[in-house]
Amino acid sequence: IVLSDNDVYTVPQQAETGVVLLVVLILNLVMLLLSDLILRVIGREGAAVLIRVMGMILASLAVEIVLTALAVGSWKPA
Length: 78
What we know:
single chain, mainly alpha, 0% strand
């Protein structure tokens, strides 16, 4: 769900948000349609490496969100 505050953002800004959302959805569709080709190019080992890297990125994001929510000490995300 994309929320846009009518009191804060103008109609062109809200339209820009919609266009960006549409572009991201189209890019996702293209990546899904080309997934077999991408897998052939990077191979099984490349896919395994990407899975591990994305897992590390997701884990670090989760830690940052939890620490921010708990407002731990002097933790100040950049």
